[in-house]
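dumping this here so i dont lose it again. seq + smiles for flavin-adenine dinucleotide
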Amino acid sequence: MTLPQRDANAPVGTIARTSSDVTSSAFGQDVAVSFEFFPPKTKAAEERLWSAIETLEPLNPDFVSVTYGAGGSTRERTHRTVQRMVDETRFDPAAHLTCVDATREDIDEIAKDYWDIGVRHIVALRGDPQDGIGESYAPHPGGYAYASDLVAGLKTVADFEVSVSAYPERHPESADWSAEIDNLKRKIDAGATRAITQFFFSPDIFWRFQDRVLDAGIDIPIVPGLMLQPNVKGLQRMASLCGVAVPDWYVSLFDGIDDDPATRDMLTATLAAELAAELHDRGVRHYHLYTLNRAEIASAVARVLGMHKRVRARG
Ligand SMILES: Cc1cc2nc3c(=O)[nH]c(=O)nc-3n(C[C@H](O)[C@H](O)[C@H](O)COP(=O)(O)OP(=O)(O)OC[C@H]3O[C@@H](n4cnc5c(N)ncnc54)[C@H](O)[C@@H]3O)c2cc1C
């Protein structure tokens, strides 16, 4: 099939690099990268996260984001992690925020607190149901029902930059593509200026989605989310809950290396860099890396994308 050639994202890079900084790989100066982290649950996990951050910080991502879960303690952890990034790193953190199990007033208060500590970017989501992905979702009475409502609410709190989700293989609860695209449009109409996608493994899936988006007149950047999960069984479990296809060819590459974490890491980085290169060929310039709070794979992929050049440009 010949897919129409269309430019993808407008570059969002904010850190100037000189022409001599062009990477020797296919990726040029205009590539932007963001890293996603989740708030750690234990002291040991927290130490691992901050050690990963130490490795990734010199790569100067355009922004980083911290996920948010249902339940008071998870929320606290997100806030603490974002606060520490503001206090102790050069990162520009975006806080994820969801509609789940909270009143509008509660959410507005959290958003205001973020604004007050200097956070200017929110990733606004409906959120996974409290009982877990795949369970049924019921809006909180008095809460924001869907992400589009949350985006509109956030804009009344302060002039946040707002990113939202997008689903190249469709959100499992969307009745059809028209409902999916209409929902994305609602989020943009409410004030979102960037969509970050669910992970996927085939560039064709992204191109088909982008064509739907462009045909609907949507022109905000659609940033592909690249999953860096080297545990392929865990990946398959997560993907099936999210309605994401993990191709057989991808799974089979991990055959026989369950006990070989180094090879699994290298393979995961190679495959993510390969997908990034295919997306780059057709105009993608911003990549969102699901780091899983680990540095090695994200650092390797970001370096292939040319982010290590930023170290020199700034140094
Ligand atoms: C980049 C990214 C980051 C994420 N981060 C987190 C996180 O930090 N914490 C977390 O809990 N989850 C996170 N998720 C998962 C996300 O919360 C789930 O996928 C959730 O099921 C949907 O959230 P959403 O914001 O996409 O929902 P929405 O955009 O609100 O859409 C959800 C579904 O509802 C439908 N819908 C929307 N509006 C209406 C309406 N008015 N009436 C009927 N149906 C409607 C949509 O078509 C869609 O099927 C993330 C997902 C992505 C892609």
